[in-house]
Amino acid sequence: MEKFGYRFSFGPWNIHEGADPFGPPVRPSRTFDDKLEVYKQLGFDAVQFHDDDAVPNLDELSPAQIRAAAQAMRQKLSDAGLVAEFVAPRLWEDPRTTDGAFTANDPAVRAYAIDRAKKTMDIANELGAELIVWWLAREGTYLREAKDGVAMTHRLVEALNTMLEYDPHLRIAIEPKPNEPMDIAYIPTMGHGLALGNATSQPERVGVLMESAHAVLANLDPADEISFALAFGKLWSVHLNDQNSLKYDQDRAFGAVDVRRAFNQVRVLDENEYWKIGMVGLDVKALRTQPAELATKHLANSLNMFLRLVQLSRSLDREAVAQFVATRDYDGLDWLILNHLLA
Ligand code: XLS
Ligand code: MG
Among 86, 91, 222, 247, which is 20 to 30 Å from 179 by CA? Predict the structure, then answer.
């Protein structure tokens, strides 16, 4: 498979059982080892981890036990010819974090969140991952009167500072999302993520991860969100997927809803040589109707879509584009692009 120098990743949660808020799992769980086989079969290079994907039940383990478990995972990865792209603290499932983690009103919960994030960094180091991802699932509110928005923003900065101080090397990529599970989240877009990073003690070590569905949920264009972060040298990872308008977070296969929107994400990444910068993460979910034995096609489809779109971006007649732009013939340009995508 010609991958044009790109490296691809996904998380173990992307092979899932199909439960939704209204119904139970529809497919049996697959073991982590079983999932590792899929990575290689489908041509992926790296695994994205939540801290407890790498070290289950880590809250009950000593620091030494955590390190040992992470070392064993690193061995397993290297035996499978894979690497770890990032580790993200899972701060949204523990009963303590019901009302937020870094932005909980209860100081004991905030202390737990920081402690857990430090453990995540230890795990990342043992796995050889260079990146921490901050998906701020419960940092927001259902009621705006419930939290002090100014204080909460400062708390997020303080949490980042504490982490940056705790580990002198790891970089942190903030993954913005405007809603879900919270009604309204504190860091909804790339702009918010970049501003937060810039307010820290070591801005050069804080960047962003752009997820397509999250941008769509914010009613923004994912390619523009990518461009904005790239312009500041801050796009350190992506979660490409798709989303059918402003609904629940769908994590559809990349390009499955809007091929042109997907094309523009790939075009912008490719024009800016993203393959030299970061990995292409595909944060996609199989449709709930998909039978268990067929429930990895969403990953294959997404990877193939990315590669097809790289080819289409590279074969686009750039001179014709320039001509249309020069004459402000944007309807002409529109047809050039549509025709190119339909060809
Ligand atoms: C959210 C992701 C999430 C992060 C990592 O979109 O699925 O798990 O990417 O925490
Ligand atoms: Mg994601």
Answer: 86
